[in-house]
């Protein structure tokens, strides 16, 4: 069988046609694998009729739902390339990604009618807009439901194989501009295999999908669920009050939540009020999981398995096993089964146990590179190894303990934020001379952005004014929660900002 993700869904539908593939929590809809595959075929045929061809980039601005998954598999069947869009971004940010990817078609939910109206006024290569939801689509957009209903449920021609691009997923760049990580059908197949062979995944599992599907931490597990034959219990958007009741009602067995979500879940309700006996484990990643949080869940009889991965690795890097989750609290485990991970010094040699070095990753699931960025690709992938920029130690048993980030990325509520992007916006304020942004500890979000601003002579912008200036130019989760006016920003003799000194001077925590 071709290594085509669309054919994976077709194969699962033939093997397990009556198995429940998807439960939409908020809308109360349920779909078998046979139904999901037929819907994906209809979407593929509908998009093909609109001119979508192999290699064409199709952007998705959608909430979690059956439409997202069936469009993902439809594009795979066509050999087209999906460009997932983070719906928290503002129109200017979306327009940059659409231009960079060269996306000619956009599929979006009715919830985003307002940003779509703004986006239409910006320069993009978009030619076709397809809108899901009730009512007549505005602005000449096509009705997703009408197109799908009129199309054939028969499988379309499926030309793409392992080496063809499946999706381009954008991450923030250290230059302030997002970079598109290119993944093929082959890299996703490899990611699914290593996940299913390493984690405790079983046929018939009921996997709680809480993260948005524009994240690799949601898209890759969803693909692995189809590969393994599991049911996705899909939340349209994360609601911490609903999680524990949902686990009981749907007999959820597994799932994934970032540490901030785990905190919100405990704060939103009493887990002891619900029967959670079906739940074997929850995976958690995107930021180091505090050992105290792992222990709090252990007291409830819930295993938290810390995972470490990246968009560039299609998700997998390290995972703690059920046997070691408590014995090695604080570790993200050794490498996945079909993955190699090393912790190396500046010369590329493996560090001794307990010493800090950079994490590098190798495996068939590592991205092919950054879209249209050969310079960034060459910097990141060297001699077959993905250089993560993350700092860690490794113990004598090969278990990795993430320490810090070599790069200055901030992870707030599971979202990646690069200081350079915020610095670039604040530097445009007429009263700002220079600015440096650091991550400040936050009990609620894990980290929050904090901006240290040197005003121009004779100027004294207020913190509130600078925060307001960012509104509309950055997604809300990127906007600094702390702004401090300072006389100077510390630098080394070569002019590089010494953010370590800023963290020492402004230790936080950030206000909630």
The CATH class designation of one domain is Alpha Beta
Globally, the shape reads globular
Tally of extended strands? 26
- In angstroms, what is the radius of gyration? 23 Å
What is the residue-mean pLDDT, rounded to a whole number? 92
What are the segments in which pLDDT stays under 50 over at least 5 consecutive residues? none
* Spatial strand order of the main sheet: 2-1-11-10-12
Architecture of one domain in CATH?
3-Layer(aba) Sandwich
Percent in helix: 25-40%
Summarize the structure.
The chain has 15 helices and 26 strands. It has 512 residues and is α/β, with parallel strands linked by helices.
Structural description of this entry:
It is a single chain. With 512 residues, the chain is α/β, with parallel strands linked by helices. Among the domains are: 32-161, 3-Layer(aba) Sandwich (Rossmann fold); 411-505, GMP Synthetase, Chain A, domain 3, CATH 3.30.300. It has 15 helices and 26 strands. The strands form seven sheets. The protein has a five-stranded mixed β-sheet with strand order 2-1-11-10-12. It has a five-stranded parallel β-sheet with strand order 4-3-5-6-7. Strands 16, 17, 19, 20 and 21 form a five-stranded antiparallel β-sheet that branches. The termini are far apart.
């Amino acid at each position: 069988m071709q290594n085509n993700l669309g054919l994976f869904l077709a194969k699962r539908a033939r093997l397990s046609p009556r198995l429940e593939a998807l439960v939409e929590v908020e809308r109360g809809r349920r779909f078998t694998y046979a139904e999901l595959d037929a819907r994906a075929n209809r979407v593929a045929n509908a998009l093909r009729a609109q001119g979508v061809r192999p290699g064409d980039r199709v952007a998705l601005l959608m909430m979690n739902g059956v439409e997202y998954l069936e469009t993902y598999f439809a594009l795979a069947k066509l050999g087209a390339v999906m460009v997932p869009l983070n719906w928290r971004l503002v129109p200017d940010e979306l327009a940059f990604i659409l231009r960079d990817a060269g996306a000619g078609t956009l599929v979006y939910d009715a919830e985003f009618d307002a940003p779509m109206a703004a986006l239409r006024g910006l320069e993009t290569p978009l030619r076709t807009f397809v809108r899901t939801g009730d009512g007549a689509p505005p602005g000449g957009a096509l009705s997703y439901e009408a197109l799908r209903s009129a199309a054939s449920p028969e499988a379309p021609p499926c030309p793409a194989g392992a080496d063809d691009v499946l999706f381009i997923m954008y991450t923030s760049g250290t230059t302030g501009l997002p970079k598109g990580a290119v993944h093929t059908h082959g890299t996703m197949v490899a990611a699914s295999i290593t996940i299913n062979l390493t984690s405790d995944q079983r046929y018939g599992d009921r996997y709680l999908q809480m993260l948005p599907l524009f994240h690799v931490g949601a898209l890759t597990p969803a693909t692995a669920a189809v590969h393994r034959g599991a049911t996705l219990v899909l939340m349209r958007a994360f609601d911490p009050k609903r999680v524990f009741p949902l686990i009981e009602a749907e007999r959820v067995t597994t799932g994934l939540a970032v540490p901030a979500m785990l905190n919100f879940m405990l704060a939103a309700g009493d887990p002891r009020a619900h029967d959670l006996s079906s739940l074997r484990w929850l995976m958690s990643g995107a930021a180091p999981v505090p050992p105290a949080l792992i222990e709090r869940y252990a007291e409830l009889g819930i295993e938290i398995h810390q995972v470490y991965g990246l968009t560039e690795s299609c998700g997998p890097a390290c995972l703690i096993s059920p046997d070691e989750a408590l014995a090695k609290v604080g570790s993200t485990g050794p490498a996945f089964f079909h993955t190699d991970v090393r912790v190396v010094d500046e010369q590329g040699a493996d560090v001794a146990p307990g010493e800090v070095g950079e994490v590098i990753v190798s495996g068939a699931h590592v991205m092919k590179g950054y879209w249209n960025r050969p310079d960034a690709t060459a910097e990141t992938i060297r001699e077959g190894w993905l250089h993560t920029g993350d700092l860690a130690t490794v113990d004598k048993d090969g278990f990795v303990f993430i320490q810090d980030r070599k790069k200055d990325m901030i992870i707030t509520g599971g979202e990646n934020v690069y200081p350079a992007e915020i610095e670039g916006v604040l530097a445009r304020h007429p009263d700002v001379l220079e600015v440096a942004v650091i991550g400040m500890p936050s009990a609620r979000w894990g980290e929050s952005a904090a901006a240290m601003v040197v005003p121009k002579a004779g100027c004294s912008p207020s913190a509130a004014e600078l925060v307001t200036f960012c509104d509309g130019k950055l997604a809300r989760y990127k906007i600094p929660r702390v702004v401090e006016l300072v006389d100077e920003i510390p630098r080394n003799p070569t002019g590089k900002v010494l953010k370590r000194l800023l963290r020492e001077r402004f230790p936080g925590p950030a206000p909630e």
